[in-house]
Design a protein that fits this description.
binds fe (ii) ion, 7 helices, TIM Barrel, single chain, alpha/beta, about 15% strand, 3-stranded parallel β-sheet
Length: about 220
């Protein structure tokens, strides 16, 4: 299984700070044994996070070699903050654009820009990052359905599944719209890979969708 959303490249965004921290995080995945693939998705165009874009590929190549030695496959992607800019990203597997948004304010017309720049412009599939976070997007709402109809995939952070009183996440899961769990691992909270596994055990219907996506990209 693959973790599609993480900030484990050291020193490039608000994720893991140093090489040692990255290795420690990778070791956690290795010890768990089941998550054998990680997509690194550093923030890009995020107005609240400084990203060292120039370092991304160098750090990725360094960690990819280390991960390989641990039996973990890794890929480079990005988490693109969508506002009103022209949308460009680093697509994971040359195929997926992981998109995040302002939590409180919907960037008006964003889906049209995504379709124009990413879907039609670059032939990408779109993953909406941590859908449970956005105050402007109700689980199961007409707006959510419209985004689904555009073919976007919905990702939920595994750490938002618990505690049970996290009602928004529970409603997302009940809506049947969730396609994927991921850790969004910034290297701050140990145990996230295990939380991802537990979320998967609890919601096998989400796992079957994840498996379809994984099979398509790793075949
Ligand atoms: Fe993230």
């Amino acid at each position: 299984m693959i973790d599609f959303h993480s900030h484990l490249l050291y020193g490039v965004d608000d994720g893991v700070k140093d090489r040692e921290g990255s290795l420690k995080a990778l070791e956690e995945y290795r010890a768990l044994g089941i998550i054998r693939g990680i997509v690194f998705t550093p923030h890009i165009y995020n107005p609240y996070v400084k990203t060292n874009v120039k370092a991304i590929r160098t750090v990725f190549e360094d960690l990819q070699a280390e991960a390989e030695g641990m039996g973990i496959r890794t890929w480079l992607g990005a988490e693109l903050f969508v506002r009103y800019q022209e949308l460009k990203t680093i697509p994971a597997f040359g195929r997926f654009a992981l998109c995040e948004f302002d939590v409180y304010n919907e960037p008006l017309g964003f889906a049209d820009r995504i379709d124009r720049d990413l879907v039609e412009g670059q032939g990408l599939d779109v993953i909406l990052a941590h859908v449970e976070r956005y105050e402007w997007l109700e689980p199961g709402s007409a707006k959510a359905r419209q985004l689904k109809e555009r073919g976007y995939l919905f990702q939920v952070n595994a750490s938002d599944v618990w505690p049970e009183e996290k009602k928004t996440t529970a409603r997302w899961l009940a809506s049947g719209m969730v396609d994927m769990f991921a850790t969004d691992n910034h290297g701050r909270a140990p145990g996230l890979p295990e939380v991802l596994l537990r979320a998967c055990e609890r919601y096998p219907d989400v796992v079957s969708r994840m498996n379809e996506i994984e099979n398509a990209v790793t075949a």
